[in-house]
Amino acid sequence: MAHWLFKTEPSEFSIDDLQTSAQQTARWDGIRNYQARNFIRDQLQPGDTVWIYHSQCSKTGLAGLAKVVSPPYPDPSQWEPLSPYFDVKSTENSPRWFCIDIQYQRSFSAVLSLPAIKSEPALADMILLKQGRLSIQPISETQAAHLLRLVN
DNA sequence: GCCAACGTTGGC
DNA sequence: GCCAACGTTGGC
Question: Are residues A78 and A32 in contact, defined by beta-carbon separation less than 8 angstroms?
Fold first, then answer.
């Protein structure tokens, strides 16, 4: 079972929004980056753990856990002309963008801040610290185990 | 709000 | 297929 980091701006959609969603479940759509798309389409599996990361806010960092509860499927918003995620070049026979559904698991009592993550030598290889803009990224088994010891 | 990093677009 | 221009992300 793999671990993933999903970035979100809490002003758009936060861990609290996930918790208060119907069935505490939400579609993670609108991903329009090919590297992130490949992770979704080719690697995400039901049961995988999702670490929710809050970006672009006063307390950037890991806010809680969710889990993948659907297989990857074509992101419907790519075919909705009024959606900001509409993609005129994507066809039903060959969908360009994919999404999954995730379900809330838990919120951390305090956000594990970016500076706190940076201060851990064991986490120095996290993609988060090297490729700041990638919105969906894998977390290694070792990193996840270490992160779990830092949160409560 | 600024700015660096970096992904995407489009002309050639 | 290169690369400059441009747009977006995200930390601060």
Answer: no
pTM here? 0.94
Who contacts A115 (Cβ-Cβ below 8 Å, separation ≥6)? Answer: none
Tokens 């698991």 belong to residue: A105
The residue that minimises its CA distance to C1' of B6 is A133
Give nearest nucleotide to A35 (CA–C1'): B7
A45 touches strand B (CB under 7 A): no
Classify residue A22 by burial, with Cβ atoms within 10 Å: 0-12, 13-18, 19+.
exposed
**Poorest-pLDDT segment among A3-12, A85-94, A134-143:** A85-94
Q: What is the mean pLDDT of residues A61-69?
A: 97
Listed as ranges, the nucleotides of chain B within 7 A of a protein C-beta are: 5-8
Overall residue count recorded for chain A in this entry: 152
Q: What is the pLDDT of residues A26-54, one digit of tens each?
A: 999 999 999 999 999 999 999 999 999 99
Distance between the alpha carbon (CA) of A100 and the C1' atom of C7, Å: 27
